[in-house]
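Risk mitigation, structural track. In case the binding assays with 2-(butylsulfanyl)adenosine fail to produce interpretable data, a predicted complex structure has been prepared as a fallback.
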Amino acid sequence: MTAQDGAGKSVDDFSLAEAEAEMARLAERMREADIAYYQNDAPILTDGDYDALRLRVEAIVARFPELERDDSPTRKVGAAPSQGFRKVRHAVPMLSLGNAFSEEDVGDFVDRIRRFLGLAADAPIDFVAEPKIDGLSCALTYEKGRLVLAATRGDGEEGEDVTANARRVDDIPEILSGEGWPDVLEVRGEVYMERAAFAEMNAAREQAGLPLFANPRNAAAGSLRQLDARITAERPVRFFAYAWGRLSEPIGSTQGAIRDRFAAWGFTLNEPAARATDAEALFAYYRGIQAARPDLPFDIDGVVYKVDRLDLQERLGFVSRAPRWAVAHKFPAEQAFTVLERIDIQVGRTGALTPVARLKPVTVGGVVVSNATLHNEDEIQRKDIRVGDTVIVQRAGDVIPQIVSVVLEKRPADSAPYVFPDKCPICGSNAVSEEGEVVRRCTGGLTCPAQAVERLRHFASRNAFDIEGLGDENIRLFFDAGLVRAPADIFHMRDREQAVKDAVLARRAAQSAARKEAKGGALADDKPAKKIEREFKDVANLLDAIDARREVGLDRFIFGLGIRHVGETTARLLARSYATIDDFLREMHLAKDHESQARADFLAIDGIGAVVAGAIIDFFAEDHNRAAVRALLDAGVRPQPLERQETNSPVAGKTVVFTGSLETMTRQEAKARAESLGAKVAGSVSKKTDYVVAGADAGSKLKAARELGVAVLSEAEWQALIQPG
Ligand code: IVH
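Fallback model:
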């Protein structure tokens, strides 16, 4: 992507016409980068690359002053850095919230909590309700009352160090006020910008001819992620506190009490907050906030409900990446009209053909939308969506925009129903839908390049192997160059460094040839040395990044294989259930036999159903899949066993079966608690079971335990066993 930027002929050799053409190209490139940064909050250039473009524009203007225009790109500031901040690991992961889109969803949320805690269907529960502000979350660590670190959320595990910038935010105290804070205190909250301040800032930018931010969220994000902290200081960025991470000692026993302490220590809270004890009271709060929304000084996208008591929060714990004790109740989605220009078909890693709507760009709720998902063939038919139609697009929070409906009155007279392809657009194989499935899949399997590329993308992606620098574009390049066809090839790239460099240079040459052709002349690429140096540095960094990922978590390894039905959660469950990759492979091999103990053990894992189990066993029954895994291990990839969540717990690594009715907790809570202590909870008893916890009226499982000589505990004995201290 960067190869074409700022490269090419020296400005000194330009004719006026060439300079003009180059100026137009640079302006366009900078405009794209500005849109990505200011409107979409998704920078496509690094600071350095953006500066290189600007320097080149300046050089042109210096030689050809007549080319300086009112909207000259030289008058713009640099784009946001996408590199340049130190990475920081969060001691306590920063999780997200589940969403509720209706009162029914909220009712379910409250009922779920009651059921989990084993409370009566109408038992009151104390909740704190707060506005959900649309900014970016940030974690502030204080040591002995002094700010020592500010980090963005990042992917929740690892964020960026923005301490220097956070120090310039007025709402973020450098030194805490009041007293009684613990030695280590991590306060979490949202960095945002008020609407009025945002409007004022944009107006000033417009005056100065600077590009405008699309919305306060992007403005806040862009301002915090500035390499130059002085810029942050000039921006009206604010912060409110609503949660916490690492603490050296507890700071309260309820959400409400902790809010009060935050306020006493000098933080701003998100107001108006309220208390409620049932779903009806939560709805009343929601409606009140919805009515007050236009008058609030900041943009909100919903409200958040949190169980007040921390002991209950603790018991409720987390599902996947979100707490069971909190939910975000979102406001209805925002909509806009636009025109459907084209329907593209993408081929996914399992061969699924997914239609994507290409739209005339339109702003929906402050974000420019040009693509929307169409889900599948059925959806297009059901809504009778046709190319050329005027459609209503909708965007809710961070979900992918959707097409809600077609405006039939505006349908062009010559429009025709969309015909879904029955061939893979990439490899030409037949695309068919399996019985009972709406999705059409390419039957090309391993021979379909689209599937292969998508599998590689998945493998290298953030939640799988997370290989920095091996993004979509590079995967395509190395695939096309024949360097990387299967995951293991990635780990052999260092052995083929020269070929990798050649591929990168070939891309560069192709890009510059295309540019020359566009300019209609044979221009010499006369200063390539610096660019080549930079490309080689990128290659070196990529190879280092690959080496660094040879040691990868077993969960990421399994997830990266792209087994059908195996998402992150299942992959983690598998990694917890099988200590090493060798164990896992052996058991999956044995489990092919329906009568085997391995299969029984596999199916006994809570959370592994018959369909998922079948898909996994089938995957490993295929020679080429096993070979691909072997090849990875042979290439020096060493999947690391997961760290136990609590290694010093007496039940860590043990397999437990709960049976009969429990008295002090629900079955669901018992299971969640055991798992959080590192135990595996199974649904049936086998020789591998360590404990059977038997409540009242235990039946066949208790009997099985006795027969197999498995330790049987009463509920009280179990509680005593897991009691801390
Ligand atoms: S509590 C365990 N409270 O919404 C998660 N989050 O959609 C604790 N957010 O990542 C988060 N206002 O960035 C919480 N009053 C509020 C919030 C809030 C906005 C953001 C936060 C979070 C995201 C989840």
